[in-house]
UniProtKB/TrEMBL annotation:
It is a multi-pass membrane protein. A ubiquinone binds at residue 84. It is found in: Cell inner membrane. The heme is bound between the two transmembrane subunits. GO terms for biological process: cytochrome complex assembly; tricarboxylic acid cycle. Keywords: Cell inner membrane, Cell membrane, Electron transport, Heme, Iron, Membrane, Metal-binding, Transmembrane, Transmembrane helix, Transport, Tricarboxylic acid cycle. Membrane-anchoring subunit of succinate dehydrogenase (SDH). Pfam families: Sdh_cyt. Heme binds at residue 72. It comes from Candidatus Pantoea carbekii. This is Succinate dehydrogenase hydrophobic membrane anchor subunit. GO terms for molecular function: electron transfer activity; heme binding; metal ion binding. It comes from the Bacteria. The lineage of its organism: Bacteria, Pseudomonadati, Pseudomonadota, Gammaproteobacteria, Enterobacterales.
Length: 116
């Protein structure tokens, strides 16, 4: 019998699966957005890059993508740790370390994007 295990983000497996797919689609759109920009503005200069990230749409899209990466990374790592690290104490410590790293990543991204 399988006991119910839940992540901090999902209520069940289907919810986690849906969050992973939504975050993956958002990340894909962001990659497409950046790729199209790089193709259109081929001789890319520092000034063009700064102007591109001065647009509020780009800033908000970047932050949403950073949050999607956080969500995607957390659920994926939670699943891997749940499957392969059986001692609960070790798994909780690893989950805590991963959570801190992911939160630091998003906070640093906010600082870089908004120039706080």
């Amino acid at each position: 019998m399988v006991s119910k295990a839940s992540s901090a983000l999902g209520r069940n497996g289907i919810y986690d699966w849906l969050l992973l797919r939504i975050s993956a689609v958002l990340i894909s759109f962001y990659i497409l957005y950046i790729t199209v920009f790089l193709i259109i503005k081929y001789p890319l200069t520092y000034n063009i890059w700064c102007k591109f990230f001065a647009y509020y749409f780009t800033k908000i899209f970047t932050l949403l993508t950073l949050c999607a990466i956080l969500l995607h990374g957390w659920i994926g790592m939670w699943q891997v740790l749940t499957d392969y690290v059986k001692p609960i104490a070790i798994r909780l410590v690893l989950q805590f370390i991963i959570m801190i790293i992911l939160l630091f990543y998003v906070i640093y991204g906010v600082i870089v994007v908004w120039g706080i």
